[in-house]
Design goal:
By secondary structure, this protein is an alpha/beta fold. It has helices at residues 8-22, 201-210, 237-257, 267-272, 284-297, 314-324, 342-355, 377-390; strands spanning 46-47, 50-51, 131-140, 149-158, 171-176, 191-194, 197-199, 217-221, 277-282, 303-307, 330-336, 365-370. The protein has an eight-stranded mixed β-sheet, sandwiched between helices. The chain has a two-stranded antiparallel ribbon with strand order 1-2. It binds zinc ion (4 copies).
Length: 393
């Protein structure tokens, strides 16, 4: 059809419509094509990071602390973390390095002190610091056997964030000094790590948490001694009596005063939370961990650290474990290769393994030899770090 055949009335109507729609457009020129503005997608329905309406892919630019994308609700699977500080490469949440039998994490990081030496960078000041408190707790004088109540001191390391994370509960490590120390041994002063480095344990704990080696935890350092007493020279009264104190006085006091995982300090409350309590000690403190911890209170602690020392037979440890009917979380034991306590420590460990065939060396427990070390601080400090890598996992 050509223009001459269009009826005049239809043509006039078309011109009028054109004028109405496009104002000044010439009646004989074609109207320009105009695409109407699309209705913007509000991205109201997301499926795994993709808008179900328009197909846009979310950039996940900001996440909540729990790892949920604030735009699309995508839950971060935390599939990869930084070898530097264990932060998730996608959402930034701090994860934990986890080491295999070769001391390697999937991120490529090597475990601290894997070669028997702590990196001196750990002796620098950590950017995120915990705090220390000291308290006196009441307890019957189990050592003298009378009911007289005495007050004993403890120090507590509280991790960075303890004050403002008011809802967070924490795992607890009871950390015992050796025969020459006291309740202030671990937390209150720097020690010579080697001839050129000083080490301050609270700062070391700060770093382990900051770098994603361990979960934030509370570390309590009491003393097994009572006021006016000294080492009894063996594994007699003090190490055994301290077991009563742990169960009936100290742990209930800790639960009352700090945000632990135990609902209350009753025996049932403590037993229910045993996965969140560890006990470790250096030298004579190992005897305390074994005797007062494992032997007398296996139902209250799942995690044990014997940093060069034993003072108990593997058979006694096996019997206590069997009596409780409860599983071991992990036993970390160590000694220096020139350590005066190497033979006895190793003998206890080996006897335990042969008495309890279900325990697997390297899985449930480990005995590490610290190279070029005698019965000295490098064994305790490395041992503390290495033990913590296994606890509460
Ligand atoms: Zn959309
Ligand atoms: Zn997103
Ligand atoms: Zn993540
Ligand atoms: Zn890692």
């Amino acid at each position: 059809m050509n223009r001459r055949s269009v009826p005049a009335a239809v043509f006039a109507a078309a011109v009028l419509l054109c004028l109405l729609l496009f104002g000044g457009c010439g009646s004989t020129e074609a109207a320009p094509t105009v695409t109407p503005e699309p209705t913007p997608c509000l991205h109201e329905v997301w499926e795994n990071g993709i808008c179900a309406q328009c197909g846009m892919v979310c950039e996940h630019s900001s996440f909540t602390e729990e790892g949920v994308c604030e735009s699309c609700g995508f839950l971060c699977p935390h599939t990869a973390h930084s070898a530097e500080d264990a932060r998730c490469l996608l959402c930034g949440r701090r994860m934990l390095h986890t080491y295999d039998g070769n001391d390697l994490c999937v991120c490529g990081r090597t475990a601290p002190a894997a070669d028997g030496y702590l990196d001196p960078a750990l002796f620098e000041e950590c950017p995120e610091q915990g705090s220390l408190v000291t308290l006196l707790y009441p307890t019957p004088n189990y050592l003298s056997g009378d009911e007289e109540e005495i007050k004993k001191p403890l120090y507590a390391y509280l991790p960075y964030g303890y004050d403002y994370n008011a809802e967070q509960r924490y795992n607890v490590l009871i950390l015992m000094h050796g025969s020459a120390g006291d309740e202030d041994y671990w937390l209150m002063s720097s020690q010579d790590y080697d001839s050129s480095h000083e080490i301050y344990v609270p700062n070391l704990l700060d770093w382990l948490i900051y770098l994603g080696e361990i979960e934030p935890c509370i570390v309590i350092t009491p003393t097994y001694r009572n006021p006016g007493t000294w080492w009894d020279g063996g594994v007699g009264s003090d190490s055994y009596q301290f077991g009563s104190e742990l169960r009936s006085s100290l742990l209930p006091f800790i639960v009352e005063n700090f945000r632990t995982w135990a609902e209350d300090g009753s025996e049932a409350g403590l037993v229910a939370a045993r996965e969140h309590f560890a006990i470790a000690g250096a030298s004579y403190g190992s005897m305390i961990a074994y005797n007062a911890g494992w032997y007398r209170n296996f139902d209250l602690f799942a995690w044990y650290g014997a940093l060069s020392g034993s003072g108990i037979s593997g058979g006694d440890l096996a019997a206590a474990m069997e009596r409780s009917g409860l599983p071991l979380g992990f036993l970390y034991a160590c000694a220096g290769d020139n350590d005066s306590e190497l033979t006895t420590s190793r003998a206890t460990y080996d006897a335990l393994l042969s008495e309890v065939p279900s325990l697997k060396d390297g899985e449930d427990c480990v005995f590490e030899l610290v190279p070029d070390a005698s019965h000295d601080i490098r064994v305790w400090e490395n041992g503390l770090v290495r033990a913590l890598l296994h606890f509460f996992r």
